[in-house]
Design a protein that fits this description.
There is one protein chain. The chain is mainly beta. It is built from 1 helix and 46 strands. The chain folds into 2 domains: 109 residues; 368 residues, Methylamine Dehydrogenase, Chain H (7 Propeller), CATH 2.130.10. 3% of the residues lie in helices and 39% in strands. Strands 3, 4, 6, 7, 8 and 10 form a 6-stranded antiparallel beta sheet that branches. The chain is globular, with a radius of gyration of 25 Å.
């Protein structure tokens, strides 16, 4: 009989021959899993098992491995060479194949695998659906705070995944609202906030990400009590730290803006310093760096503006004209350098509304469509206007149909996620003619040939309005700033929060 060690060696060799080879073209990513948080439930609290999952182009089925919570590098799946690989870590209480509960999730940014070179991957593991302060990668149990307290600011997700936060006002308990021109950049890779260039004091302005990666800032209030307006626009290259100054033809704040695939930024609506509506539309052509004329007024304020899947059709929905809430959904497109209206007989909203939000629902392979959410059904709550719970899908330039019913609120923050879902957070509710900030959070999922479904998530720790919400590369959402007046007192939201929604699959 062969010695035992010989049999073991032969058996190991046979198993290696039968096993799916890692192969010379496959490598195992080196994973740095940040599994601590600075507040809330720790991501690994109660966790017994982890599922490692790699997806990407050319991988017909995900590469998966399941381990106990005491994982090692060998538990990370080896993957073949290729681009845009994404590694997920899903944490369960109980074995996942025996009904274990998924409680935490981490997801890497897309990375490339080169033959023979193991990529280094770092990710934050986050408790699902729980709002927690941003934490530092260098010290995960340390919270990371923005440099300034802001409301009515903008937050723009850049092409590299960082978030450019600009302007806004500081909500103070005495009711004063000093406006700032400071900016900061949030880096989701390490959880840090760093100062950016000054862009001139502005609040209730717009920020548009251009195809070349620059950010176009327009309008805004420069001061309150009395209201004065910021007369300039700024063109910001965050990577280079360069800021260019431009002068629009009209100053405004609380306008709507959207940018098409060619880099045209359309500005509509807004208010003048005396509160009256600004009906002059204006457009900026980023290719030439010039403002271009838009013929004719567009009498609409507190409206929304978005661009359809074709990348060139603007849709304006909601808002009020001189007669009150307007039902017509107007469509526009650039013909050369001029803007033209596309439909003589526009479709109409089921529920005219003022102060709504719009976000695109659906992945590129799901025929994505803008979803109009919330708003007031009148011009002002003091005139018996009520918050709207109905949503509406802007199907095309000719069709509008009912969307799912949501919590009734105006001025919510809505963000499109990479997986095609939409998250809507906060906003203003109404009661007895008064408004107050809300903590509601809903996740909307599209379904082919069926009505989208709505999942209510955990309430935000503090109600918010005039805040921002930004999709991060790992699928989580960053919430910054805002005002909480739900108790009758003005309270600023100084923390930046992050929430990881449950996965779609």
């Amino acid at each position: 009989m062969a010695p035992r060690f010989v049999r073991s060696t032969l058996l190991a060799a046979a198993l290696m021959a039968l096993a799916p080879a890692c192969g010379e073209n496959e490598v195992r990513p080196s994973l740095d899993l940040l599994s601590d948080s600075c507040a809330g439930t720790q991501p690994l609290a109660g966790v017994t098992h982890l599922r490692f999952r790699v997806t990407g182009p050319g991988l017909d089925t995900p590469r998966e491995r399941v381990s106990t919570v005491a994982w090692t590098e060998a538990d990370v799946p080896a993957v073949p060479s290729g681009t845009a690989r994404v590694l997920e870590v899903r944490a369960y209480v109980g074995a996942p194949d025996q009904g274990g509960q998924l409680v935490s999730l981490g997801r890497s940014v897309a990375f490339d695998v080169t033959e023979g070179q193991a990529p280094k991957v770092r990710m934050f593991l986050r408790r699902l659906g729980e709002f927690v302060p941003v934490n530092l990668a260098s010290a995960p149990r340390t919270c990371s705070l923005p440099a300034a307290t802001r409301a009515a600011h903008t937050a723009t997700t850049l092409q590299d995944g960082r978030v450019f936060i600009t302007g806004g006002y500081e909500p103070r308990a005495d009711g004063t609202r000093p406006v700032t021109g400071t900016t900061e950049v949030f880096n989701p890779a390490d959880g840090t906030f760093s100062p950016g260039p000054d862009v001139g004091a502005r609040a209730f302005h717009t920020a548009s990400l251009l195809p070349d990666g620059r950010v176009f800032l327009a309008g805004g209030a420069q001061t309150f009590a009395p209201v004065t307006l910021q007369p300039t626009a700024r063109l910001v290259d965050v990577v280079a730290g360069a800021v260019g100054e431009l002068t629009p033809k009209v100053a405004r704040y609380q306008q709507a803006a959207a940018v098409d695939a060619a880099g045209h930024v359309l500005l509509v609506g807004g208010h003048a310093a005396d509160g009256s509506g600004v009906f002059m539309a204006e457009a900026f052509d980023s290719a030439s760096g010039r403002f271009v004329d838009v013929a004719g007024d567009i009498p609409r304020v507190d409206t929304t503006l978005t661009v359809m899947e074709d990348g060139k059709t603007f849709l304006m929905a909601g808002g009020a004209d001189s007669m009150g809430p307007a039902a017509d959904v107007l469509s526009f497109g650039f013909n050369g350098t001029s803007l033209e209206r596309l439909m003589n007989v526009p479709p109409r909203l089921r529920v005219p509304r003022v102060g709504a939000a719009v976000a695109v629902l659906g992945r590129p392979d799901e025929s994505p469509r803008p979803l109009l959410m919330g708003g007031f059904d009148g011009v002002a709550p003091t005139q018996d206007a009520r918050a709207v719970g109905a949503s509406e899908v802007l199907e095309d330039v000719m069709t509008v149909h009912d969307g799912p019913t949501l919590m009734p609120r105006s001025n919510p923050c809505a963000v499109s996620l990479k997986d095609g879902r939409v998250m809507v957070l906060g906003g203003r509710g109404t009661s007895s003619g008064t408004t107050y900030a809300q903590p509601w959070v809903e996740l909307i999922t599209p379904h082919a040939g069926a009505q989208p479904t709505v999942l209510g998530l955990t309430l935000m720790p503090q109600p918010r309005v005039w805040h921002t919400c930004s999709a991060l590369p790992d699928g989580s959402v960053l919430v910054v700033g805002g005002v909480d007046d739900s108790t009758g007192e003005i309270r600023a939201n100084s923390e930046a929060l992050v929430v990881m929604p449950p996965p779609r699959d």
